[in-house]
Amino acid sequence: MTNFQYFTGTIVQISDFNAEGCLKMISADNGMGGTVNFIVSPSTYVLDQTMLSTGDIITGYYDGNAPVPLIYPPQYRALVMVKHTSQQNVKTDFFNSQLISSDGQLQLNISPYTRMVLTNGQAFTGSPANRDLVVTYGPSTKSIPAQTTPYKIVVLCLPSA
Predict the structure, then answer these.
(1) Contacts of 64 (CB under 8 A, 6+ apart)
(2) Is this structure's pTM higher than 0.90?
(3) Mean pLDDT score of the chain, rounded to an integer?
(4) How far apart are CA 68 and CA 133, in angstroms?
(5) What phi, psi does 48 have (nearest 5°)?
(6) Domains and CATH numbers, the chain
(7) What confidence score (pLDDT) does residue 157 get?
(8) CB–CB of 116/24 below 8 Å?
């Protein structure tokens, strides 16, 4: 189980992080004085393989238990990057055996129309319970936990630490 933490902000700069160009540094600002640098590698899952650009509003998810350098602004290795759109909501978290997120805020009701895939786009045919998931959904109830029928579930098969 990964301790997913996140930062939401507007991309202010994208640059190469190393000479080979395989790692990118994405700097984001939340408009309230908070700035974060995300290191985006080829193993970072970018939702729908969307091209990220300066000015995009994004949420970057990282492992809150991973070591980070003590510098400002903080620098995190991004596990998941999501570009915001008005058509969908996204939650990245561990979902337990009842498909409730680790923070207790969202419960999933799987339908036959819910697409379940791996990060490489291939179909996932197992159970999404007790896994790290990226969930794309629309409307939800106002209950706690909110309930929703997701449009798509991406199963993150992250390596164990």
Answers:
(1) 3, 4, 5
(2) yes
(3) 94
(4) 23
(5) 60, 20
(6) 4-83 (2.40.50.140), 89-156 (no CATH)
(7) 86
(8) no
Question: Quick one: CA torsion of 26, 52, 107, 145, rounded to 10 degrees?
Answer: 60
Cα separation, 148 vs 57, in Å, equals: 24
Residue 142, burial from CB neighbour count under 10 angstroms (0-12, 13-18, 19+): exposed
Q: What is the pLDDT of residues 56-73, one digit of tens each?
A: 999 999 999 999 888 999
Picking from 59, 122, 66, 67, the residue whose alpha carbon sits closest to that of residue 90 is: 59
**pLDDT tens, 138-149?**
999 999 999 999
Distance CA 52, CA 30 (A): 16
Beta carbons within 8 Å of 108's beta carbon, 6+ residues apart: 95, 99, 100, 128, 135, 137, 147, 148, 149, 150, 153
Model confidence pLDDT, tens digit, residues 32-60: 999 999 999 999 999 999 999 999 999 99
Beta strands in 23-86 (DSSP E): 24-29, 35-40, 45-46, 57-63, 75-77, 80-83
pLDDT, one tens digit per residue, over 97-112 is: 999 999 999 999 999 9
End-to-end alpha-carbon separation of the chain, Å? 10
